[in-house]
Amino acid sequence: MARGIGSKPVPTTPVELDLALDRLDAAAPRLAALPPLERARLLRDVGRRFHELARRFVALDVAAKGIDALSARSGEPALEGPVIILRFIRELAATFEGPRRIGPARVREEHGRTVIEALPLDAYDSAVFRAVRGEVWLDRAVAPDAVTTDPRTLTAREGELALVLGAGNVASIGVVDALGQCFIEGRACVLKLSPVNDYQGPLLELAFAPLIKEGYMALAYGGAEVGAYLAAHPAIDAIHITGAYETHEAIVWGADPAERRANKAHNEPICRKPVTSELGNVSPVVVVPGAWTDREIDHAARSIAGSFAFNAGFNCNATKLVVTPRGSSLRERLLARLAEVLAAIPVREAYYPGAAQKYERFTTNGGRVQTFGTPAHPARGATLGSETPWALVTGLEPAMQPACFEHEPFCAVLSEVSIASGDPLEFIAAVAPFLNERVWGTLNAMLLVPAAVERDPVLARGVDAAIRELCYGSVGVNVWPAVAYGLGTLPWGGHPSGTLADVQSGLGVGHNALLFEHVEKSVLRAPLVQTLPKPFWYPGHRTLDRLALRLIDFQAAPGPLALARVAFEAVRA
Fold this sequence. Notes:
Layout: H1 14-32, H2 36-64, H3 76-80, H4 82-96, E1 100-101, E2 107-110, E3 113-119, H5 123-129, E4 133-138, E5 148-149, E6 161-165, H6 171-184, E7 188-192, H7 201-207, H8 209-214, E8 217-220, H9 224-232, E9 238-242, H10 245-253, H11 257-265, E10 275-278, E11 283-287, H12 294-309, E12 319-325, H13 329-343, E13 348-349, H14 355-362, E14 368-372, E15 387-388, E16 390-396, H15 403-406, E17 413-419, H16 424-438, E18 444-448, H17 451-455, H18 457-469, E19 474-477, H19 482-487, E20 519-525, H20 544-556, H21 560-571
Parallel strand pairs: 6-7, 6-9, 7-8, 9-10, 11-12, 11-18, 12-17, 16-17, 18-19, 19-20
Antiparallel strand pairs: 1-5, 2-3, 3-4, 4-20, 13-15, 14-16
Helix pairs in contact: 2-4, 2-7, 2-20, 4-6, 4-20, 12-13, 16-18, 20-21
């Protein structure tokens, strides 16, 4: 049960959970039978409420994450929360009002795959994202005239109930996952909020009021015991988990490590319900050797530092491992500039539980450790409301077994490893085997490719081959893959090579407002040097707070005036 706005909710009791599930169960057949236009109407109603409440959501996150409300970085929670939620709602509603057909000119076949140009979708996308292009890769060949986003093709769920276990780091995660379960999967949904950000609950109840009133959605509060109760409840037909890999393993295979190993050995999961998930990643950025200019070095360093430090490093798609060419002068030039950029970023509050312990683990496991920034309130143990300096761990080798290869450093630690050599073809050929075989996770990877390499036809083909071979659900070429997460029109999730027993970054895809099927990966491309607009994740973005508020209004209701206001703040960054 939620209390007042911003207060800590009381854990939902088993009796309250049972009553909520009974109500969802009674309403689930009506939800499954809703025609597309009625789903669109409900979505737009919810979207209007999120827009009205957006600034209050942002204010809560700013306070909870220890961000200076007067700083440009106070725009981060807006970009991670309401902007993404509003765009997803708007795009999904448009699909239900469709169908939205993809022209044959946007569809091509490559190496047995179907590649769909899905960004930009319209003139507004072209204006906001400018040089960024996005593709959806399907794992099979589909005739161009068969590519459509038709809600009439959705499978009827016949009144099922879903449990969504929301993550605690970003406001949009649980919301978008719950909306996907309700409107794409057609399941009534209970969203169990993480104790880390359950202060959002009272506002979420207001935003979701049309769905709660109809019995299509309910919110639940509490810790692991509430999640376990719901996951095992006979009324729940499907489970979606966002957050820790350990949570997935405990629910599917058992909380006790010995029990888990035995169950996996006999292929006997304790949970027999369909489980989808998004579980994080050791997110790599690959620095492709070639003829780099000083300007390109500067942009690469800022892109790496910004995608690492955004949200204090507590993102599943935050850059955590820099892969450089061994023995190359490029490596030394980049690391030197990266250290300068990190030194200029103010330290951040380590608000996520367990961050201090993870920080110690990943800074005492090999390599040369440099730290940047002096915390005013150093983190100790499990203390929240404290700070850790940015850490850069360099000099790791592929033959080593550092923790950062096998576990996600969900804290303020960035590591670096050098592979292969400075020869571009040799390096590019080594990228996919190293990342696929040695680095944990299949969620997202970023390649930084200088213009000289992209202009060289042989090297460009090598980069394209590496993209095909990489087992990641999203690949960004000179673009932080978090952009794919936020678009809502490019599917987001782990690579389909994951299995229940070796789940890696998760099973299934979300954020799929265009209803693509048979998704292998999303691919984003842009020039390495981007100036207008300045990438939102670059450190020192001077108007991020004002830009984010303008984007809230734009995503709620795109129009020429709203776009002009976005552009005004973007050019002043």
